[in-house]
What we know:
This protein has helices at residues 2-14, 30-45, 90-106, 131-136, 142-145, 156-162, 193-197, 235-252, 290-311, 330-342, 357-361, 388-406, and strands at residues 49-52, 58-62, 71-77, 113-118, 180-188, 201-207, 209-218, 222-223, 259-268, 274-275, 278-287, 314-322, 326-327, 347-352, 366-372. It is α/β, with parallel strands linked by helices. The protein folds into two domains: 2-208 and 325-406, 3-Layer(aba) Sandwich (Aminopeptidase); 209-322, Alpha-Beta Plaits (2-Layer Sandwich). Helix 1 crosses helix 12 (388-406), helix 8 runs antiparallel to helix 9 (290-311) and helix 10 packs across helix 12.
Amino acid sequence: MENSWIINEIEQIAQFGKDKRGVTRLAFSPADRAAREYVEKLMRESGLAIRTDQIGNIIGRIEGTDAKAAAVVTGSHLDTVPEGGKFDGIVGILGGIAALRTLKMRGPLTHPLELIVFSGEESNRFGVSAIGSRVMTGWTSAKTLGKLKDQDGVTFTQLLAEQGLDINHLDQAVRRPEEIKAFVELHIEQGTALEKANKTIGIIESVAAPARCKIIVEGVAAHSGTTPMDERQDALVSAAMIILAVNEIALEQADRGVVGTVGALKVYPGAMNVVPGLVEMLLDIRGMNHSSIIKCLQEIKDAVSEIAERQNTGVAIEILSSERPASLDGELVELIAGICRQQGIQYQHMNSGAGHDAMNMARITKAGLILIPCKAGVSHNPDEYASPEDIQKGIDVLTETLYQLAK
Ligand code: GLV
Ligand code: MN
Ligand code: MN
Ligand code: MN
């Protein structure tokens, strides 16, 4: 019963932002707002008291018997990447609703329970990811976010105002460590480790650290028919060399768990008959080992300067963010493992290459992350899929974990 409810709701939510391929529900877009409204209704119908904070996180709560006790919290996100799937984030939201509903029916617990729908987990057009949990944990501020502008010149302050949110009140969204006893997120794996090992649950010990950069290559726009090959300052040719260099440098560090991606490229003016004058590229480097990431970044910087000089193009690198890997809580890892054993569920300990709101929550509370397999590891892709059976097992483990923490 519960399971068919979830499968049906996954399809319902996928209608918000349904695209030619997959689901495009970017943070703070009309589709995202509609999905949030829909989910808020589901949360209300499940008996949760709802409030929205100043970054747009939706917080649903069930009180416990001890008015002073810290909350036991679960949550995830509703926004997607462009042309994303139906499961990334959503499994944790619907799983959280299902878990809280079950626990509410079982009767009052000592601690309050909360489900948080975090705003904007995916990297947004301002180059900031997991913005809801970042603000909630005080990891960024109105001062920093107030400086952000997208490429059309729209400020983050304006974007928030369009949602009825005031950047000057952002600090009201910050939670104190004493308010939260623990945070546990349920999510799809977005990799193949569980499927390969034939395990149903992955219990995360560390989440990889991302470093993000914007690289701007400046050449000279010119007529593609009249500019001789040896007189060009083609920004896209330099950019192509930079992409290859990133790939090579990350490959060299691959045995230390580093991955490097240029995932976005803008070419200006972007016409068939113009030698590209300017290219903007976005680079994402991740890994479990901070010093390997720093080494990678340095090598990329050197390679970029060398290419720019050789190609007679200008270059600027802006570090958008650089973080350390997040260690999740050892006691929670043990608690979740014990629950899997008790429920006869095959599990394994592992690390997560993907970023999650849990890694930000780990800064203010004990944080745990429960992963379930997704087919062939495919994610950030319309073909993303997790089976109803695995989703149910993930919910069972989440429910029991929240129960043990809140009883
Ligand atoms: C988002 O899903 C990320 O891991 O970057
Ligand atoms: Mn994602
Ligand atoms: Mn996600
Ligand atoms: Mn993510």
